[in-house]
Amino acid sequence: MKELAFQGKWRTYQQKILDNLTSLLEDDGLHIVAAPGSGKTLLGLEVMRRIGEPTLILAPSRTIRDQWAQRLCAMFLPAGASRPKWISHDIRSPGDVTIITYQALHAAFSGRVVEEEDTNVEDESLDDGENTRPSEATKRETEKHAGKIVAGLREVKVRTLVLDEAHHLRNEWWKALTTLKEALARPTVVALTATPPYDVDPQEWSRYQELCGPIDDEISVPELVLQGDLCPHQDYVYFSLPNAAEAERLARLRQDISDFVSGLSESAVFRDAILRHPWLTDPMGKTEAILDDPSFFSSMLIFLKAQNIQLPQSALDILGVKVHDVPTLSLRWMEVLLNGVFYGHRNDFEAAEQVIGSQQSRLRQIGGLERSKVRLVDQKSIQKLLASSASKLNSILDIVRLESASMGDDLRMVILSDYIRREALPAEPGNLRPIDRMGVVPIFEILRRSGFKHLSLGILTGSLVVIPASSKGILGKIAASLGIDASNIRYQELAFDAGFVSVEIIGGGNSDIVHIITQLFAQGGIKVLVGTQALLGEGWDAPCVNTLILANTVGSYVLSNQMRGRAIRIDAMNPEKASNIWHLAAIDPEKLKWSNSHPLSPMAADGSVSHSSDVVTVDLGSDFDALKRRFHAFEGLSFDTPPVIKSGFQRLAPAMAMQKMLSLHDVNRTMEQRASDRKSLKTLWQIALRGNSAAPRMREILQSNYVPKGLFHWKTAKYLLVESLALGGLILSSISHLFRVRFHSFEEMVPFLFAICCVLAVVCLPQTLKASFLLLRNGSLESRMRQVGIAVVETLHHMEVIRTDLRQLVVHAALDDSGVIFCQLEGATAVERSYFLEAMREILVSTQNPRYILVRPSMLWWLRRTDFHAVPSMIGQKKENAEYFAQLWNRYVGYSELVYTRNPEGRLKLLQYRTKSFASAFTREIDRFSRWE
Questions:
Q1: SS3 704
Q2: Is residue 144 part of a domain?
Q3: Helix, strand, coil % in the chain, rounded to nearest 5
Q4: Do 84 and 208 sit in the same domain of this protein?
Q5: Phi, psi of 403, deg, nearest 5
Q6: Is residue 695 one of the residues assigned to a domain?
Q7: Under a CB-based contact definition with an 8 Å cutoff, are residues 427 and 496 in contact?
Q8: Torsions phi, psi of 898, nearest 5?
Q9: Which domain holds residue 88?
Q10: Contact 238, 668 (CB under 8 A)
Q11: How many domains does the chain have?
């Protein structure tokens, strides 16, 4: 470690952390959250150097593993120094600095010798066989191999663990790392991540925090842009409609489902089988079974109502609804019904087994069954078709044309896709097959065939590298500067186009070719580089990238943020860099015609959307939904005037201008116009970064169109009415008595009226005062939201989920002009805010299966109503916490009864709660986002 010395200049946030390093390491660890491109690798190496002990660095992929070694040599050793022998990539032969992947650690603990894959973990739910319990012999073997690995690390005195992006861990990898940490007996853990898993449940977060330690500092994207450590940037969306062949296939898939449902509805045998189901013939006697699957019970009633069959009154009574409250039959309710008939309750339909069996076979043939589950809406085949729609190729063509014209020779564009699809390469110049699939080669081909001049197009994947033939000279010079012999570089002219050559380095690894092509890209030998997200999506360092097209199908929180990070890094060679990031979405033409919540007029030939609703809330298909999920991870400029910085897809809504009933074509043109004006990006960021406070920062906020309503109104109105009548009677009778006003036939009633009113006034006064206090305190929507928030905060603090002193915490709520409520918690840590907002979300949205619910029946004489609210799941896990929350709810919000839903009585209440939610015509819309303020 004494040989190492940082050769550069620290950024502001890095220097701040290093200045306070001694105090930060007092708990044997450091946990930093910072955006991609913020320099976490260099920070981690400096922390390692200052600790001064042999270190094990773990990375999520081989590309990032190699990057750690490259950064160490380039930035901490004198210029021209050779790579030290004490850097090792072999866990079985560790050095003073050992750099491996998480997968390599797991393999070594299992006794397997496998080559590390250069892949990214897109699905954090993958468990590498966690559900398969290992045998005792396997456990003993693992313990033996793990013991050898640990002994080797102890021998070289490894006392520091650096964990890069530990959120990547699959469960089996997690076990290996936890075992290692325990075996090394309290090593210093340095955890670095761009995307902590805030969206996991508290138990999983606890596990993550136990490994990585509490977060010591969190640096947001706006902070880094403000400090000049990330460049100004903007996200854009380019929409497309499936081509004619794809649209026909979609229509055929949906028509098959429609025909199937129509045929099933016309089947007298099937209808009679539903009618004869024991839950409908004797619902009161089958209440227990109904409570175990209330959705299936509801689906049978909904189906029969659609058949104009009179519903049993006893069945409606169990649900607590009237006939008109039962919703209309939809494909989603048919899914519930058929899942019950085909799988969950098959034994109850033995009399109709032949018909049910044939219908099940028919549904399988048309793709309506997926892994023993009925899927009538957005089947996987539809999702895949939209995600990989060839229409996106034309979108890419339009974007490249726009950006090429706008940027000229300064363009450095990267296009990331999921698959290479090498088979799409033509065999000869005249053999140009139609391009009908997304992938690296199809994207390359459609751009090559477009005839762009001076585009300098290239491919970089793990198995295929293509460059312009005119760039061979530049590549040769780059290779020579890296010490790679020219004789080891093999070029092969593409059979279908002499203007391009494939490149291979004999005896070299992926890291060599990636490094060379990256340099070629930076120097302009390639201006548009097409590659796979697995190779270039994370860890790839090319600061020159100023335009990114995400042509992949990944919508995950973690990986999409990492890919976007390729474009937002600053470029020392271009201080004025500003980046455009393009996202592609294929709109489902059927959903464009008809939204689930609002009918849309028929789509025009150009894809016009003739509906005034906010496009963010309209269902436009699974690909659009994936895009919206992706945007939850992005903090960036809104298209508002003036601009603000926030996360979520809502920030792009003004540019979509759906309230003006524009077509998709017009929306794309709006995006293009904004993207062409890169020069204004820096100014817009400067405006937005001012915020609205003395020390602006990112604050997480809950947005809702619903607040618990009517919590006090009935009781308040009742007591106030009685008190008013009583006081009015007192005044009336007093006037009559003092001024001897004759009331004719009522005169004799004055003394009696006076006495009654006195009694009513005295009896109702305490309740009137309490109700009036509640009304004054909680009368407005934002005040009610705040009181609910206070109950949540105090409960989570009691549970020690929130540890910050209550006196430092403030619940803020505000109402905008459109009636949307915004709620946030000030003074808490990022994790505490996340738990608070999730608990609030569960209260405000109609949670399907809470362990506890709050029930408040109320009556204003002959008018009766019941309000239900779910107790958040993290609070409802323990009875004492739920009871504590109920007490606070009663104090701050209004009296409600706490009901446990896991016994027969409680499940009946839960059934009524769920029925009320699906019978309601009002759709609760809840969203979480972050905003700079």
A1: strand
A2: yes
A3: 50, 15, 35
A4: yes
A5: -70, -35
A6: no
A7: yes
A8: -85, 125
A9: 12-219
A10: yes
A11: 4
